[in-house]
Amino acid sequence: MLVEGISDQIAVETLASLEARDLAAEGVVVVPVGGVRSVSGFLARFGPAGAGLRVGGLCDAAEERHVCRALARAGFVPPESRSQLEAEGFFVCDRDLEDELIRAVGRDAIEAILAEEGDLASFRTLQRQAAWRDAGFDDQVRRFLGAGARRKLRYAGLFVLALPPDHQPRPLRGVLSRV
Hints:
Structural class: mainly alpha
Strand content: 5-15%
Shape: globular
Radius of gyration: 17 Å
Helix content: 55-70%
Largest sheet: 2 strands, parallel
Order of helices and strands: EHEHEHHEHHHHHHH
Number of strands: 4
Number of helices: 11
């Protein structure tokens, strides 16, 4: 399973563990590719023209066309729609997986998690900064996660753990259902 970064890997593996799934025992490896622009090489290596493995993954909405082209170049049937892309095992996150998680977890739960982790005061400081004061909550959280050393990695699993089962983001749910 190809994902853009380590925080995506953490989110996928955390949800799998919540479902008592052992991805390794199932023969599934979640591979952070270091950004979607690197996906072509991984698809060439693992896809039909390479090792012939079943490959799936996550991508951001802005990168959907790139993934479709990369799939075609790697020997997959070229997806011409999002449903065809999903049929190939690739699921598109609106904006990105962090955005999906922020919306699914919700403001109250996120603030409770930040408080538990001792980061709520720092988050409040960011919210009061002139550049972020008028931004929406989701954008403030995205900035906060991206601004701290390893915060994005630390909170990926915590946000997944806080998800109500009926609020799991569709792309995250979808990619796990394909493996």
